[in-house]
Amino acid sequence: MQSFYRVVYLRAWQILKSNWRLGFFGLFVATLGLTGDFDAIVNLQSSDIVSTNLLSWLNIFRNIADVNFSWTMLPNIFLFIGILILMAIVLVLAIASQGALINASNQANSKKVLGTSSLFYDLEIGVDKFWPLLSLNLLNKLVSFVFIAGVVVPIIYLLSLTQTNTTMDIIIKIFIFFVIAPLTVIVSFVTRYGYSYIILKKQSATRALANAWTLFRFNWILSLENALTMLGFTILYTMALIAASAFLITPFLILGYLVSNISTMAFLILMVVGSICFIALLISAISFFGAYYTIVWTETFLHLTGKKTSLSKIHRLAARHLPRLVE
Q1: What is the C-alpha radius of gyration for the chain, rounded to an integer number of angstroms?
Q2: pLDDT tens by residue, 104-127
Q3: 10 Å Cβ neighbour count for 219?
Q4: CA 224: distance to chain centroid?
Q5: The dihedral of CA 260, 262, 263, 264: what is its sign?
Q6: 164 to each of 177, 186, 306, how far by Cα in Å?
Q7: What's the pTM?
Q8: Could you say which of 88, 167, 237, 267 has the lowest number of CB atoms within 10 Å?
């Protein structure tokens, strides 16, 4: 019986520490929305590139039909096309980076010395599996969007209009909490394992989804524990980032205040340098977190599909204190 979290989280840190270049992939992966496992419960808004852009572009294309085109609109049309191309490039890089991180983590595990293949090779693996990965990402976001935007939000709005707590209101709330929210969380887990099946097992999206469901079904407690652990890590990491940002920015603000009455140029230089430092810190933090988050889930997948038995913390605690429950 091995300590699952000690092995997985330390291994993920060792891989990232030995390959800082993986942060390049992490920056793009972060745009896909990394904490989607519990967005259905704690947040009803879409914050990732797939969901946000899907809603934005649907609204844009719906409004295009009502526009009367003229030559004066040509610059705006070119701008629109340019933005569309730019967003498509970012989306391709985000999906490909997801596959690249999964492949890099697996490569590191297959070697005695922590090291991975070249940056372009890992990215090529992700690009090669772009469409299967995109299909699972879309499935995850569409299921969340359909249930959250199409079911949960209207129900919550209707319930907010009622003044009495009727039996039907209670039934609807129970349905949302025990059916819709868990379903969106399950889809998030299954698609997350599906990404690894596509990259590491070379499976199609359909087969990967079926195998991912089987893997989740037999390891749902450990998957839920891991997601909660990563959620806690995310909160602590965010708090640390806020503290680091305050520690970084405060000296520039103090110096800026002191020199503002002496030299306007010195004040502007301090503000520009402070802004550059803050942006560099933010990008570095997002890159690290995106890479580490994906590697942790890849390591989780490798342990669950490996020869060694991985048991949840709840199971190990029960085996230690209540052994008859796990016999």
Answers
A1: 23
A2: 999 887 765 455 557 788 889 999
A3: 22
A4: 16
A5: positive
A6: 20, 32, 53
A7: 0.82
A8: 167
